[in-house]
Amino acid sequence: MKELAIKEDVIKLDSAMKFAGVIMTGGHAKTVIQNGEVLVNGEVCTMRGKKLHKGDTFSFEGKQFLIK
Fold first, then answer.
1. Is residue 11 classed exposed, middle or buried when 0-12, 13-18 and 19+ CB atoms within 10 A define those classes?
2. 0.70 exceeded by the pTM?
3. Structurally, how many domains does the chain consist of?
């Protein structure tokens, strides 16, 4: 699991995916999130603007990330 250190208290899911480097554009993030390809805290998430807090995790294409 890779850790992503954020400065704010929250980060939106699509922004976290771009920050992690697993997607390159917001449009790509929107597509994969709406297709149910992303897990947040172990559950499928289809909300592009889902707010992630420190301690939350997300997974995409077998890679898992922890918000720190």
1. buried
2. yes
3. 1
